[in-house]
Structures are given as C-alpha cells and as structure tokens.
Request: fold
Amino acid sequence: MTTRYMRRFFDPRSIAVIGASERVPSLGGTVLGNLQAAGFPGELMAVNRRGGDTILELPRYSRIADLPQSPDLAIVCTPPATIPQLVDELGRKGVRAVLIVMGGLSTPAPVASGAIGFAHSLLGLRLASGKTLQEATWEVARAHDLRIMGPNCMGVVVPRNDLNASYANTMVEDGDVAYVGQSAMLGLAVADWAKGHGLGFSLLTTLGESLDIDIADVLGYLEGDWNTRAILIHFEKLQSGARLMSALRAAARSKLVVVMKSRRVPVSQEPEEAIAAGLTNSDIVCDAALRRAGVLRVERIDEVFAALETLTRMRRLRGERLAIVCNGIGPGMLAVDRLVLSGGQLARLAEATIDALNDVLRTVWPDGNPVDLEADATPELFAKVIHILRADPEVDAILVLHVPTQAAPSLPAAEATIASANEILKPVITCWMGQESAEPARQLFNEADISTFNTPEQAVDAFMHMVRYRRNQAELAQVPPLPGPNERVCQTAAVWAMVGEAVNAGRTLLSDPECDRVLAAAGIPAAKSYYVADAGELREVAAGLVPPFALKILSDAVCRPFAGFRDTCEHGRGVALDLGSVGELEAAAVDLTAAEERRDPRQGKRGFKLQRIRRGLDSVQLSMGITRDAVFGPLLFFGSGGSPRRIAGDRQVGLPPLNRALARMLIDSTAAGRALDDVCEDPEQLRDAIARMLVCLGQLVVEVPTIAALEINPLSASADGVLALDAKIELGEPLKTAILPYPGRLEEAATLARSGREVLLRPIRAEDAPAHAAFVSRLSPETIRYRFFQPRSSFTRQELSQATQIDYAREMAFIATAPNEEGVAETLGVVRAWADADNVSAEFAVIVDDEMRGEGLGRMLLGKMIEYERERGVLVLRGTVLPDNAPMLRLAEKLGFASSYSEAEEAVAISLPLNPATDDWQRERLAQIEGEAE
Reply:
C-alpha cells in the first residue's frame, strides 16, 4: 500500500473538473454542483471545450493547458475514449491526483489520431493493438507519476473539509466513520441510508475498478486519520492479498473495521476468481483472512450499521456470557434460541445471584437465565434485577427485553434501565418490542447512547457481532503458548534436496517415498510404508506382516494432490483396502496393474506401496495440507478426510505461518475437530498433536515456497496418536505467504561492553509476551516516563500482546535477550520502529533494562534498527525525546541525529536521514514531515 499523493484526493487545496457543465443531470454538472453546494473552500476550475465564458459562475477553460495553476485534484467526467489523452494532458500540467468518474474503459484504445485528438503515440510510445483504454490510461499515469482513483468511481466526500467531489444526490453529514467500497451504486445507497439514520462520515468513497488506488491504499491513509474512529468496507473482489492483509491488520489494531463481501458464491463470481485446489468454496478463504486480520465480517448491509452502532456505543466485552432480562418468557426464549444457534453462550448465573433474584421475584428458572420478571414487572424491578446481575462474575453482558404493559409502560421502564445501565461497567443491550409505544423509548436509548433494537433476534445478532469481533481481535493479538519441542523441527535442507532432484529431473510431482521423507523432515509422523517393485517382492514383504493390508499402485495419476476433487471418479483409484491375506494382496496387485494399464498403456512399471491397517481402535479420518489461493497465496487446510463428498462441507483454511494457538482455532472450527471428543479419553492430546503438525506445515510452506500443493489424506487419529497414511505433493513456482513469517535471518549474536555477557539481538515474537511483561515490570518509574512520556504503573494484556504480536511489514521490534541465572530467557532491551505506508519516515523508540546501563546495549539496538530501516529504503528515522533524558540525547548525537526543541510539545524531535529522496512526492512528504515537527 502507499499513501503517495493521497492527501490531494481527501484534502485538496484546488480542484479542476474536466467535462464541467451547467447541465445538472450530467456527471460534470452534478460533480461541480456538489462541490459548490458543499462550500469547498479552495479554488475550483471548470474545463470544457464548448460553452460560454462561465460554467456555474466559474471561468470556463477550453484546455487543461490553459489552467492558471496545477490543481491538487482533477476530476475527469468525460467519455471513456477521451480519458487517456486527458490524463496525459493533466500529467504534463503537473497534476498528481486524478479521479475518473466514468466507467467503460475496458474497450480497445484507438491507435491512430481521430476526432478525440488522441495522438498516434503516447509519450513517444506506440500503443500496441488490442490495448484497452484502461491499459492506455495506466501507461500514461505511470509515465507522469500521478495517482488515479477509479475508473467507475463515485467520487470522494469528506464533510469535515467541505468536500463533496462526487455525483451523490445526498448531502453527507460529518462523523467519525469512514466508508470505503468498490461499488458506486452501493456507495450512493449507503450515503442515503446513513442520512436517514443520522449517521455521519469522516470520509466516503468508492474506488470502482481500482486501476491504481485500491482499498489497501485508502486504509493506509485512514490509519493515520485522527478523525476516523471506525471503517466500513465493502468488497466485491479481493486483490493484492499480502498488501491488503498488512493494511487491514494495521488498521484493525487502532480502529474498528467492519467488512461486507459480496460475490460469495460461484454463480456471482467472475471467471478469474478461481477456487483453490482442494476447496469447494473460495469464500472460506476470505473468511479466514478477515478473521486473521482482526476485523468483523457481516453478511448484509443492515448488519453493517447494526454492528457499527453496537460496537461504537457499547463497552468492550470482557467475556461472552450473556444474561437475558425480560418481562415475559416468550421473548426471552426467542433470544435464547437465537443466541445458542448463533454459537453464543448463555450465562449460567452464580448461586448468590439466584438467591438474590429469589428475594425480589416470585419465580426463578432453575438456571436463572433468562430472568423472567413477568408481565406485571415495574420499572423499579427492572432496575433491581440489572443491579443484581451487575455483581455476578459469571455475567459479561446483559440484554434487556421489554414488552409494553400496564405495569411497565415503555418510557418509565426505559428510564429505569438507562439509569441502571449508566451505573455499571458491563455492556447493556436493549430491545423494546412493539411500535407506537416503543418508539419514544428507543429514541430515549439513542439519546443515552445505548444500543436498542426492535426484535430479540436483532438484539442477539448485535451481541454476536461483539462476540465475533472480540474473537477476531484475539486472533489478531493473542499471546500464543511457548513452542513445544516439535514445533521447530523442519529440516529445510533435506526438503530442498528432494525438491531440487525433482526439478532437475523435470518433475512437478514427488513420488510416494519422497513424500514420506518430506513429512519426516517436517516432523510429521507417518504410518510405516513398504515400497516394492513387483508382485514377487510384495509377497516376500507381506509374509512377515500381519494383515489386513492396504495396497496402492504407484502412478502419476494416483500421486497428484486433490485428484478426487478434480474428478470424483478418481477418488479411490489405484488403492485396494481391507486385504485379509497375502493371496488377496497378490490378486489386488494384479487388478490394480491391469486397471492402470488400461487407463494409460504408456506408463511403465511403477511398483506398489504396502501398509498394515490397524484394527480394534476407534479412529477418525482427517485431512490436512497446503494449497494456493489466487489472492492470498499459500493456505493451510484442515478438516474431515476420506472422499471428496465427506470432505467438502468441513474443510477450513488458515493463512500461514501458524503458531499452536492459531492452529487450535483452525481445528476447533471444523466438525472433524469436534469429532475427536469421541475417539479417546484425552482428545486434547490429539488436538495438540494435530496443531503441532499444522505448525510444521506452516513452517514448511514458508521455508520451501515451491511446494504448491500438499495433501495428507487420510490422516488417522486414534488413542494411539495421529498418523499420516498417505500424502501427495506437487511443486510450482515459489510463492510467498500473505502474512510475513518471523524473519530469522535478522538474528545476531552480540557481547555487552562492560560485563562481556553474550546476548542475542533478534526480532520480537508473540511468544515473548511473558518475558516482555517481566521486562516492563523491572523498569524504574523514570525509565517508564522517558519511554511513554508519563508515569505508568501497569500495562494491559492487550498492550503487551500488541507489543509482541507484530506483522514485520511496517512495524519492527528488536529485542536483546539472554538466559538468566535459572537458564530462562529474559528480555534486556527493546527498540521499535513504525514505518509509514510509503516507507518515507519511520518513528522509533528504545528502552533498556536499568541494570544494563553502561553496557552499550542501547547503542547496539538502535544501530541495528538504523541499518534495518536503511536497507528497507526508509528515507528518515525520527524519534521524540524528553528534554531531561540526557542519555538518549547523547546517544542520538553520537549516531548523527539532528535535534530540535518544540515548545508546543515540550520535547526534542530527533531525526536521522537514511536514504536520499528520488521522487518529487517523496521530497514533498519530507517537507510536510519537517513542517509538522516544527
């Protein structure tokens, strides 16, 4: 992602409308009229080849070259065939931001001059025949280093800046929610819907075809926008998976992000949206990616705003247990049904709570929840029960359902509920059923900033939005357990050797023996297999084994991953099971050989693979492996094993690399994972074993990116453990994961200057959270103040998670670690840097254990960060230091940092140039940064 020239789209100082018109129904007229109606404070310029002296009281310019200045933003509202030429003219004028409203650029571009005046050449380059207008436009844009939003773009609305550069027919109110979409028509609908519901926007835009600027770019801009508290995104099609994941994860760490994705089923998808091999639905990939990014996905447009209302108004959930209060058991049971069917958790009230409820209610349900106040419940009773539930540690949130009655009319009951809700820290959701009498109460809740809904189902759905968002945030910033001994055993060199042999031989498929060796090198246990060349050798080997047997003939068709998914007739091909004797084994070998010869007479002898089948154990067939998605790259999958029909409905995916905690989440999301409860007395042991295998596969696909597909099916899980019974591997071009793995290459040994103690300088890992917490707890109050600019007595679990759970894309943290006297690794110092989306500037902070003073550790850490950011191409490294932090200021001076004191901030700004600016936009950004520092 890049925010290069993005300010010019969202906060321009001057705008030119190309194709401006006084005809309001036209695009040019509508856009220009909206700009004037919004009160745009900058200069507006109207360009049109035809017309009078003025357009909507603005001077008319016939040509772009005639404009009195180069505008910050140009909005092109002309027919598609004119756009490449106009973009060329705008580039020559020095424009760096162009918004293209019109669509239809997929048609061929002209290759000769014509009525539209598009020359034979484009910046001296002849257009190839068959090139589309969109491709021609992109060529011109790149040549002039300008950014394009669109084509087929609704425009941009930023109410705070009095900017309505769109053809929307609704005036958008100011707010703290940003909307970014791909469909112009849906964007118009959202604007109109929001106005009717009193919702304002900090920014509203749709990007259309995203020729240049895409959603990842806009997210990079919004991440640093203090006026935006929440971001709503609508996707029709996902693209640039790695960039998108980095942008989503960065935004989700500081803002609420809600996503809606259309085109979820094959019939609504475009032909190029291929489904990954081994999967039957590409939408599960999108689901997995959005969960890993820590954002909330909703399915319907009404859910978008319901989720937004709940999550921006409600206090943060500390758990998922819901208590339900109602004045009638019917509505309460509707809520219970919806909650359980949605995967929610009904709170089981504590005994003390049930005793307290018995003191104020006539009857209490055995488990106490839902709490039925009955039809004659008074407003005072609602308040008493809410206060009782407030004290229950088993309750994390409260849903209050109300049906208007003579004893408890809507308004008095609402007032009592509001008063009680304002006195407790737990989230309270309300549902006032009915219409005429309930509407004033709902208005009261809205004024009190308490979420309210019309039906129990809507209220529970809103609560589940909170639950799913909490779970996804946990997936983004969870603290995994320390790695076990089998989690880092991938013998990469051995795997690369086998891959190299196959590539040198011109093969993309690994043989069965090679697949077994790959699994062994990756630390994945596999069943014992015997490989024989012919029936005679098969008889000799089988004579020493106890039946029953499984036999597989070795052929390319049988060795290809996901053969059964490509053609269900292929499932089971080349395999014979439950062979009870050597005689049956020999007969099966003859049959399999004959069948393969009929299918492909050109194949030579390929031999057989023999396994014993274990009996007498309860077991479940699973499958796991590696596949590739066109957008998000390598994926790990897990689910049921066996036939494609059995697999199809249960297979789920995760984005590598995984740690054990993320692997467990993947396992628990499947029916196969839940079926492990029936296999043995200790299913958790099986789940841990499977999680270790998934972690190993994640390391394998990261370290050997030429593995395009790996299918372990079946994978047998029983009381004896988990074993891979069969594996197939296919090679392809190297492909990186969408989420960057731990950069082990940056680890470096060092020696402390004074004590001579050996330390390891390395990137921080999520597993470092406990050591990081201990490190922070040892810091003196002065050191804490120097680092955080204020006294801090404690840090939350979420803060510690965010400090250790980084994506290594734009944020990097190096720690110095060494074993203490007990042999346990402890953190001695940390340096951290955050780069902006364009790699122009990175801001750093460094902190060292007080006992390490005089060891030169701060200089080691900061020096390592300087070299890292220089190699990444960052232009300037910046920091902020308190004036009395003399040690840091001395270190900065020794390392060549420039410094300047800011009276406004009462702090010293330090900066170190790392690389020279090579483009005008970089120099512009550096000047802007220097201006902000002053």
